[in-house]
From TrEMBL:
Domain Response regulatory: 2-116
Entry keyword set: DNA-binding, Phosphoprotein, Transcription, Transcription regulation, Two-component regulatory system
Protein's name according to its UniProt entry: Two component transcriptional regulator
Keyword Transcription regulation attached: yes
PROSITE patterns to which the protein is assigned, alphabetical: OMPR_PHOB, RESPONSE_REGULATORY
SMART domains: REC, Trans_reg_C
The organism's place on the tree of life at top rank: Bacteria
GO cellular component, one term: cytosol
One MF term in the entry's GO annotations: phosphorelay response regulator activity
All copies of domain OmpR/PhoB-type, residue ranges: 124-220
DNA-binding region: 124-220
Originating species: Sphaerotilus natans subsp. natans DSM 6575
């Protein structure tokens, strides 16, 4: 899921960008209302998280201009202003949801998921690569219909790969998504996780392929109908 974040408070913007990325979202962050409007109209985002107190063009104006231009992008307004009049007025301007600061990250993620599900007309959006599926509502992986038990870091790595399945991701990107700001993380830790995941996926119909100089990509096996545990090997 691809999120546009419009927030001018740099500490909050940086933290939210990292936190949402670690939860499997792709995040584009801008800190100016004019940039937010341009990105919302010209991008392929699934939702916009919009702060009202933006420089250049405030959030109210951005929202009005987007709706006047016919943009249907779901918008979640994020602001320190929490009066009833503010909430009602913002919803009338075209916002789809409203979350006052301070807020819990889990609630923001849940509200974003609900907005995107409604906009796509699906009750429970899933990401899939061959027989492997990730349910974004329950945050569970299933492989050929069976729940796949993973450690938290294995889960984070596989989630990063399935969000961009078929597209190689570099080591630096994967380390950031799995380990975040943890200090003293050795690059070899990623190799260990990659080895574990490859063993779990072995013979399942989906594998992790390494592209020299580009990174790792989650891909379906060339032959469909493989049975988990059937002895195939991932590259």
């Amino acid at each position: 899921m691809h999120i546009l974040l419009a927030e001018d408070e740099h500490g909050l913007g940086e933290w939210l960008s990292r936190a949402l990325a670690q939860s499997g979202f792709r995040v584009d962050w801008v800190d100016d209302g004019r940039l937010a409007e341009r990105a919302a109209l010209g991008g392929d985002h699934d939702a916009l998280v919009l702060d009202l107190g933006l420089p250049g063009r405030d959030g109210h104006e951005v929202l009005r201009r987007l709706r006047a231009a016919g943009a249907t992008l779901p918008v979640l307004v994020l602001t320190a202003r929490d009066s009833l009049a503010e909430r009602v007025g913002t919803l009338h301007e075209g916002a789809d949801d409203f979350l006052p600061k301070p807020f819990a990250l889990a609630e923001l993620e849940a509200r974003l998921g609900a907005l995107i599900r409604r906009s796509r007309g699906r009750a429970q959006p899933r990401l899939a690569c061959g027989p492997l599926q990730f349910d974004t509502a329950s945050r569970q992986f299933t492989l050929a219909g069976e729940v796949l038990a993973l450690s938290p870091r294995e889960h984070g790595l596989l989630r990063a790969l399935i969000v961009r399945s078929g597209e190689p991701m570099g080591r630096a990107q994967l380390l950031e998504r799995v380990f975040g700001d943890e200090e003293d993380v050795q690059p070899a830790a990623l190799d260990v996780l990659m080895h574990r995941l490859r063993r779990r996926l072995e013979g399942s119909g989906v594998h992790i392929r390494t592209y020299r100089g580009l990174g790792h990509a989650l891909e379906p096996e060339p032959q469909a109908g493989a049975v988990p545990g059937g002895g195939g090997a991932a590259l």
